[in-house]
Amino acid sequence: MRKHWKLIFTDRVTSSLPLCNLLIKMEALSSSFLPRFPDCNVSSAVGIAKNPQTKIIAIYSFTKFYESLMKLISNSAERIKFKTMHMHPISKNKTEKQSLLANMFRSVDDFICNHLDLPLRPSIDPQHVLFGNFAPVDELPPTPCEVVEGSLPSCLDGVYLRNGPNPQFIPRGPYHLFDGDGMLHMIKISRGKATFCSRYVKTYKYMVECDLGHPFFPSIFSSFNGLVASMARMGLNVARVLTGQFDPVINGIGTANTSVALISGKLYALGESDLPYEIKVTSNGDIRTIGRHDFDSSEPFMRMTAHPKVDPDTGETLAFRFHLVPPFLTFFRIGSDGRKRADVPIFSMKSTAMIHDFAVTKNYAIFNDGQMVISPVEILRGRSPMRFDPVKVPRLGVIDRYAKDESGMWWIDVPGFNMLHAVNAWEEDDGETLVVVASNLSSLELDLGRLDLAQSKLEKLKISVKAKKLVMRHPLSIKSLDFGVINPVYAGKKNRYAYAVVITPRMGMEVVKLDLSLSSKDCEDCVVGSRMHEPGCIGGEPFFVPNDPATDEDDGFLVTYVHDEMTQVSKFLVMDAKSPTLQIVAAVNLPRRVPAGFHGLFVSQSHLTKLCRND
């Protein structure tokens, strides 16, 4: 056994054989010496040796192979030149050695998936995750749609875009729902007619993997599946960086799969693991990716939240990012001119919390230091660094939105409050009271492992600014609710109505309307309207579009995508937001299935026209 390895790798070290012969011998060795396992595919995402002795042999073989691979990389990295491009840094003329290294890396990746991974949990098993309407679809160019019910209101002239994960390749190993490449599903409406298209956000990750023909970028959710497999993947990614296969420091690793935002007059697709990607809607109803954007920052800036808050009055945007090292949280603003302002580091955060969203009022920003934490030491245990901390007491931190540092920031304990999405926040009593409406994950330890079992409650909290304490907190409904939205005109201001999706194992089967003015300790449920989708239909997050002109806060329409799992037909639904039954005003049959996704945005035709003028 050892002689066989020594023979091959002596050839490599002395360079008496070309690199291609080395690869041939390694493949031959793998075929004749290593235990055989079925190929990895979507139906059997990992092959695990059932015999412990066979598993030990496989790990030993991989270790020896890996030692030689590292020697090869260290000698090759100095000789391989690669160019870093800020937009889509894909080399069109790869050298033969780079191609051979890419093939070698892919073989090692296959080995990890087939031999080293632990049995896949449901949350990272592609066969389970990409089931039903979570299965990916291909891109679709602008295609005419048929209005099959009612008529489209004139205030909907514009585009509705919804973002979501859609892997361009079937995963060969562990895969989490949050790992998928961002795909935008957009319906463009003009004078009662509609066209629909689906396009990937052409991120750096998407372009590199598209060029190589397979997925390999690391994921905080799924790359860590057992100690041996985790260490192997980390080493392999280091090797890819050293040889120039990808450069995450310069170009990021994000998927831009979470949301869409209109920031300082430009459209962006966002994901919290990277910077936003600017996108453009073309005149014929298509989507084009412009590129990764740092808002002309003068400071190092690699990522930001996927839930920035845009002030409809001032035009400025408030955002944040969290870190693995101090400061664990950084708050910042983006001016209406599109330029990022100075960072405000938050050193009073004592560890890294997975902060997905935050709340903003006229004068304050409010952060939740919750129990979902990121602990790199978990990697040494072969687990994802994200974990639930049952001992930690969640806190809310309040800071002046124009603060230059954190000296005036204060924190209050809010036991059991783990905010996922902020619906709205505002000030009362001449700024002496802060009101926050947000979803609270009540079964946090299950949410990443079993998303279908997640429980979320909409809650309303009141905080005394003078006393710096929580003065009131209660749920708004007995239902499990999330993906709450309001009339966007009222962002950061006191509002009465909110709309949300009922979260069940079947996901969004019902949309409800809540009257926030009814909230009190004596009111168990503030739901004043609802619509249950047709049997077999599952809907996503709604978006509120105000009527033009609007007479009341709830004078407008809810728009969303709904998929019928029985007929396999997806629709664009328009509901009357004022109606207690959320009556359907219009329905559009879409030319193909729209997978389940995350957050969306409506952009009026007038805004689109302004965007075109700014280009």
Structure description:
This protein has 615 residues and is of the alpha+beta class. It has one domain (124-612): Methylamine Dehydrogenase, Chain H (7 Propeller). It has 10 helices and 33 strands. The strands form 8 sheets. Strands 2, 28, 29, 30, 31 and 32 form a 6-stranded antiparallel sheet that branches. It has a 5-stranded antiparallel sheet with strand order 1-5-4-3-33. Strands 6-7-8-9 form a 4-stranded antiparallel sheet, with no helix packed on it. Strand 6 (259-263) and strand 7 (266-270) form a beta hairpin. Helix 3 (52-77) packs antiparallel against helix 4. The radius of gyration is 26 Å and the shape is globular.
Shape: globular
Helix content: 10-25%
Total domains, how many? 1
Helix/strand-derived category reads alpha+beta
Please identify, by name, the CATH architecture. Answer: 7 Propeller
Measured by DSSP, the beta-strand proportion falls in 25-35%
Over all CA atoms, what is the radius of gyration?
26 Å
* Uncertain residue ranges: 1-66, 69-94
What is the CA–CA distance across the termini?
A: 64 Å
* Number of helices in the DSSP assignment: 10
What name goes with the CATH superfamily?
Answer: YVTN repeat-like/Quinoprotein amine dehydrogenase
The biggest beta sheet reads: 6 strands, antiparallel
Reported by name, the CATH topology is: Methylamine Dehydrogenase, Chain H
Keywords: Dioxygenase, Iron, Metal-binding, Oxidoreductase
Family: Belongs to the carotenoid oxygenase family.
GO molecular function: carotenoid dioxygenase activity; metal ion binding
Binding site for Fe cation: 307, 356, 421, 599
